[in-house]
Every structure is written in C-alpha cells, then in structure tokens.
C-alpha cells in the first residue's frame, strides 16, 4: 500500500488557483497518495517568502517571480524550479470610469491599438496641463501582468517608467483602490476585473489575450532542494494537478461553484463565471469578451513548462531594465524542469517532442510533433503597433 505523503501548498485566492481546489475536492491529491494542506496568502511577496523558508512546500507563483527569485532580484537568492504551468491567460486591464470616458472621447476606433492612441493623447494632455501622471497598478514587478501592461503602454508610445506611475498592490485590493480613486487602472487576474466591471467600479478595456495570446501565467514553484529531497511527493503533486486541470476544463461550471465557496475565494459564482459565460463587458463598446480570452487550465499544452516561455520572460526583464542574464537557455533549463513533467504525466497525455516553441508567432491553432501523437497549440501572437 502506498504511504500517504503530507504536502503544504500556499496559494493566492484567484481564479487560476482552480486546479488546486479541484485536486482537493475531486480527490486527485488523495488518489495520488497525498494529504495536502492548502494555505491561503494575500500578497505575492509573502507567499514567496513562506516558500523560501519552508513554511509551505509548493506554491503557484507568478512565472517571472520564480525566475527573479532564482536570480536574487529584489529578494534573497534561492534556486526555485517548476515542472508544471497552472494554465494560460486570465489577466485583464481595467480602468476607472473617468479614464474610460476619456479614452472613449479620444480613441479613433475600438481596437487595442486605437485605445493606445487615445491613452497617448490623454497622457500628453495631462502633462501639458501640469496634472499628476496616471497611476496604474500591477500585482508584482516581476509578473506577466506587469509585462502585458508595459507592452501595451509601449505600443501606445509611452515609457512605463516615466510617463505613468506604476505601483504594486495585492490582487484582492485592486478593486477597492480603484473605487476609492487611489489608482486610475490596473492589470490583474480574475475575478477582480469582473468584480470591478459588474459592480461599476471600473471598465475592463483589454484582456491579457489581446496583448499576448495564450500567455503563460502562474507556475507551480518548489525549491530545488525540496524537489530533490522529495521526488515521489513532487511527482504525485504534478500528476494530481494535471488531472485536476483537465477536469477543470471539462467540467468548468461545476468547478467554479467550488471556487466560489467562502473557504476558497468567497466571490459570488456569477462574478467568477462572468468571463467564461461571455458576461464580462469589454473594450470601449461593452461587447463581452470571447470565452477563449480567459483561463485555459489544460488545453493547448497549457500545463507544459515551456522553456521558451522562460526565455521570453527573461528577455522582458532585460527589456525593462530589471536584470540581465547572458545564458538564458541554460538558466531556463535549470528553472523549467520539462524532464520532471514528462516523467510525471507521460502516461496521461501526449507530450511535445521539444522543450521550446519555435520563434515564429501563430495566428491560429497549430501543431508540433508529439509522443505518441502530435500536440495541439493555440495562437500566440503579441500585440503590434498598427
């Protein structure tokens, strides 16, 4: 009989923590011989610090944060690793009603590029009038949220470090700060864009998908020390989460009901489910975002820890002068353990034959050679200046 292993997992209460909830509620942790204690946290820095000192054994973490922590950027240096991506997509850019109306008045059309043109004009007008710069919030400096927002600002011809003021706030506090007028907008994961939109606190003008299609988000982080000392528990954790992510995609509405419970997220199910049922009004027209703009938990190889994603994010760190590393490929391979993922779930799914996606971007679905069959992937373009 397989011995039960105890694992402590820290997590942020967000929609993309759903695979953890499913693994616990549907019994996948127990089925893989794990007794899991899930511990909520309320800021990314405190979650990271608890992982570093061993108060938790694993935690879904912002992918760039894992890389930054392993480099010692903004914190003590601790080598971390991931062998599992929690999914793709899920972010949005939400602005205050005042900023929304300003963009509506200045935008030549409804596209993300049109909104970028309007934002440039609005920022220039504020500067000419001697007004304070717009204040925009992200969840952490090393995050896909920050890089998506920075990229859209760059498309707008703005310097994110000089033309606006970027601040860091915990995800769950974003809506309150927007409502109180402390910030003019934010880029955050769900359900906070939906909560702002459905309560009148703000308008979700962009999905993260419109900036980077099927972008990676959180990864399951462990210290390399723990992974080496507990290979069986780590492997069981990867299997349980893979099965849970597939379950979440297949039975989404049922799983979102679990997530809405006060013990997990404590946000009404209709708010959590809004982007999945095309009830989240978006852009300048209020046209609901398509379902595929938000969370994908398993499809399109969403759980594979692509080393090309790690290398891209390291490039973003360098682009925004946060840090520099010469050997991106070597460092990415140390942090993104595709070998451990392949070993854990190879009997459950098709696996790509390579660890890197090709450099070219794709406008539609595409394939890579896989074992035992080809793997399906989704669009992966970046927003460009028109």
Flag low-confidence runs: none
- Straight-line N-to-C gap: 61 Å
The biggest beta sheet, please? 5 strands, mixed
- Overall pLDDT: 96
Strand content: 15-25%
**What is the strand arrangement across the widest sheet?**
7-6-8-5-9
Q: Supply the number of helical segments.
A: 17
Oligomer: single chain
Which shape, going by the Cα principal axes? globular
Q: What Rg do the Cα atoms give? A: 20 Å
Query: Can you count the beta strands?
Result: 16
Structural class determined from secondary elements? alpha+beta
Work out the helicity level. Answer: 25-40%
Task: Describe this protein's structure.
This protein has 386 residues and is an alpha+beta fold. It is built from 17 helices and 16 strands. It has a five-stranded mixed sheet, with helices on both faces. The protein has a three-stranded antiparallel sheet with strand order 3-10-4, sandwiched between helices. It is globular and about 70 Å long. The chain starts with a strand and ends in a 9-residue tail after the last strand. This is ABC transporter substrate-binding protein.
What's the short version?
The chain is α+β, with helices and mostly antiparallel strands and 386 residues long. It is 40% helix and 17% strand.
Fold topology:
Elements: E1 5-11, H1 18-25, H2 28-31, E2 34-40, H3 44-52, E3 59-62, H4 63-71, E4 80-85, E5 91-95, H5 97-106, H6 112-128, E6 135-138, H7 144-155, E7 165-168, H8 174-179, E8 185-189, H9 192-198, E9 203-207, H10 208-211, E10 218-223, H11 224-229, H12 231-250, H13 252-260, H14 269-272, E11 281-282, E12 287-288, H15 307-319, H16 328-335, H17 338-345, E13 351-352, E14 366-368, E15 370-371, E16 375-377
Parallel strand pairs: 1-2, 6-7, 6-8
Antiparallel strand pairs: 3-10, 4-10, 5-8, 5-9, 11-12, 13-15, 14-16
Helix pairs in contact: 1-12, 1-13, 5-6, 12-13, 12-17, 15-16
